[in-house]
Specification:
372 residues; 9 helices; 29% helix; 13% strand
Length: 372
Amino acid sequence: MSAGSSITRSATDISQSSLLQRSMSIHHPTKSDAATPIILYLPRGPSVPDLPNPPLISTLSALSHITNATTIQVNYRVSSTLPYPTPVHDVLACYDWVLKNVVHGAASWQNPPRSPRVGVCGELIGGSLAAMLALTECHARKPGGISAAALGNPVADWTFPAPETPRQEMDTLNPLDGRLPTVEPSLRKRAPAKSCSIDSWTAFADSKSLPAQTLLSARDAFFTKPEKWFDPFASPLLFFRTASTELPTLESPDTPADPAMGLAPIPVKRRKARRRFPPLHSDLSIPTMRVDVGEKSVLRDQGVEFVERVKRSFPSNMKQPTSWQAEWIATEETEGDKEVELVRREGVGLWGEEELVGVGGWLTETLRRHRG
């Protein structure tokens, strides 16, 4: 499924099974059956070099032990020589391998077949990729669709705010939806008159643990062209809205330039427009989600907005649905059980081994609760 993206699902048709297995680290629980949940863990990636990922062996072992789930770490690749969309392709290819060899393999000998439920968790770049996988592989009627997702400080939008971008902006519906622009009040709450709210990107730009410049440098290294920032498979928040910035060309006489960046143009602010996701009449059903954000993280506002956007995408939250929407709502039998939870953590809020085990426990409880 492309969902309007330049990265198509067919890009994961990779036949190198041995290479895929080397791209994953799998830890099985001591006791398991065909319905044992599967948790995909996507590490935070190289965006914060001074903060290494939790130890692999102890993390997978602890996750598998406390959750009694098959735990699989996806060792996706991303670097200046392996830029986007490489990590997206890696994650999707590994997920395909898990479907074929773990999900379908476990159910094949059961009568009737019992497929394990699949959840995904990830942080920072891994959180971005986990969100992408959860949103595009949540097929309601197919075994192995993503049923739950836990995201930690996800890089949900690589476009990042333009300079002096106000915290709250007006949202409009995408003209492609064929409707007049409307205002989304819940996403545009005005700050009290006596206070001026500063967006998290500006407020915590100089954080020692996760500075804005570190993410900007990662973006420069991991993307060959600025337009690739705008792909929803890389910036999953853009499944739900257009970007809040645009990059003008240097040939334009009105293009502002940042002296500190030479000739590089400054992102220009533009009004965000709502996009409808999942697409009409698709079999996608957004899974139960948990998003952890740090109160002092530059990515806090992205995580908060992501939760709001996901909540508003549920059919039950539509106001005055049209006839086709009413029919769609009636057919979404499981939608009432879905939850999107926002967890605010102290400081930057990055996961350590203890926090990751807690996330694994939440995933397993959620997967078992919604077992079909």
